[in-house]
Amino acid sequence: MQIDSTHPNKPSLVVSQYDAEGQSISYPLEMEEISVDPTFEAHPPYESCPPINQSMRFIVHEAATFIPYGDEENFPVMEYLDQFQSFAWEKDFDPDSEMIQIETIRRLTNKHKMSINQIERIRIFPKLLRETYNEGLLWERFQRDFLRWPGGTEDDIEEACEEPAVDDLRARLSSVLATFCPNLNCLRTLCTTHPHPQSGSFGGGRPEVTNQSMRLSEGWPCGEECFRLSDESFVDKVHWENKSDLETLKIILSISPNLFPCQLADLCFKPCREVFVQRSSIFPDHMVYDDGPAGDDGPAGIRNNKTKRKAQKPRLIFEEKNDHSKFVPLEPCNHKGPCEKERCECCRRKRHCQLACRCGTRCDRQYRGCECKRCTFNCPCIENRRECLPGICEKCDARGATDHPCANTKLQRNDAKAVEIRRAKYGLGAFAAQDMEPDDFIGDYVGRMLAISDIEILDPVIKYNGRNYFFEFSKENVDEMLDAGPIGNATRFLNHTTAELANCVAQILLVNGEHHIGFYTTKAVACGEELLLCYGDTYWLADKGDENHQAIEGAD
Ligand SMILES: C[S@@+](CC[C@H](N)C(=O)[O-])C[C@H]1O[C@@H](n2cnc3c(N)ncnc32)[C@H](O)[C@@H]1O
């Protein structure tokens, strides 16, 4: 672009073309002036926000990952950067050295046929190759695009990670467990949100259900060949010729030793009664009796356990008033046998065990779900602010097997109404894109989970742009907050109004062992109406000079 000295107010564009010798020819480009419609309004400002379907944990304070509003003069960039010790890109990471190490692994595996474990043992690298399922050189390499290495092909790197053979079920399952998060809500690879001690291992342990108690358990036969319909005389008639069938069953049992024969039959493609006989020889009943002290009630069964427990102490779990609105993340317990005070966080914090806890079916603290046919306000799950659990709350159809699944499972099924984001009175806003009934689900408020100390660091950013996406879980838990500023979904656009005018509310619910913030309508909302939430009394205090960190209040 050049300024034409004869018309200084009229910029003109001059194009220069160069030939191979560096000679150029320049010529002006005709420019047409387009006048902007004076009614045209600029788009409301907004933060770029990659969509996510699940909240993520973030640590902000260690190093500055980027400079916000770096090219805007009014942003107090030095005040912001002073709070960090370093820049993330200054950290001790040398891509060249990583590349050399990965290339070495590739050659050792491909040319010298060494396994990853053998390479690990010779300790030639500064870092372990597989420290845990989400740490180590190989894991780190997959976090970024790999620079091409002359003489090496990128595809070979995949081989260095030892893709298990197609028919090697055990190895394939191990590698899947090392890659996929075992959390029921999470389908992401190499998840860092739910680091889990059991990741990457089978760890099914010993069975806790005897074959006899399976036989005596409640339930309908799964078909004509169900184990429930066969007797002892059938035992001698079962011979599996193909050894790999038995191996498959053993592998499945090593992951999940308490699966019922009807479920195993589906997984093994074998008749249920044959699977039962094989299971009985792999796990004879004495294995269960020998495991831990023999109580009066003998070994527990998955289903008959429910009835026994009822007779002993009905609704034990619901008698304790657990307040799940206080967000305290609880690691799944990792011990054999029922939870006991001395050894278990579930007891110490008066929480139900999570699905991922390994205390087994005998544990009293395991949540047993509800037995309602239709979940209403006196449903124990709703009372305890939980969504019903597929596979546990079966009568209400939490599993969603019919056309009318339980209404208390909307969040986990993402049964959300359509929302449109557009210009509103205060920046952007969320509008109903279809008619809505009271108690319809709008979405799961997701973002990054921040420690409160990190939130202070973001003060200059929020003061500067005037948009605050913090959500507090409860008044009691002031250590953590959710921030939908840099990552989130459409729920971050719900604007504030008074409690009387609001047509939506936020509910904190426990879903498959995790706390979620669901947004629901409180009244009928017509298509095109703005969805509005009451952020709570404290949210706007900052405007009145209060320097505390304000956030949308978690509903009780
Ligand atoms: C969670 S965001 C809501 C979405 C936001 N309007 C946007 O454009 O991204 C909260 C921010 O929206 C604005 N806001 C929401 N409701 C408001 C209201 N009733 N009055 C003034 N500003 C409001 C404020 O800037 C507030 O920090």
Automatic annotation (TrEMBL):
Q: Which InterPro entries match?
A: CXC_dom, EZH1/2-like, SET_dom, SET_dom_sf
**Any keyword S-adenosyl-L-methionine?**
yes
Q: Which keywords does this Swiss-Prot/TrEMBL entry list?
A: Methyltransferase, S-adenosyl-L-methionine, Transcription, Transcription regulation, Transferase
- Assigned GO CC terms: ESC/E(Z) complex
What molecular function terms (GO) are annotated for this protein? Answer: chromatin binding; histone H3K27 methyltransferase activity
In this protein, which residues make up the domain named SET? 417-536
Q: Does the keyword Methyltransferase apply?
A: yes
Q: Which SMART domains match?
A: SET
- Tell me a GO biological process for this protein: heterochromatin formation
The record's section on Pfam families has: SET
Which SUPFAM superfamilies does the record cross-reference, listed alphabetically? SET domain
- Residue stretches making up the CXC domain: 313-413
Q: What is this protein called?
A: Uncharacterized protein
- Say which species the protein is native to: Suillus luteus UH-Slu-Lm8-n1
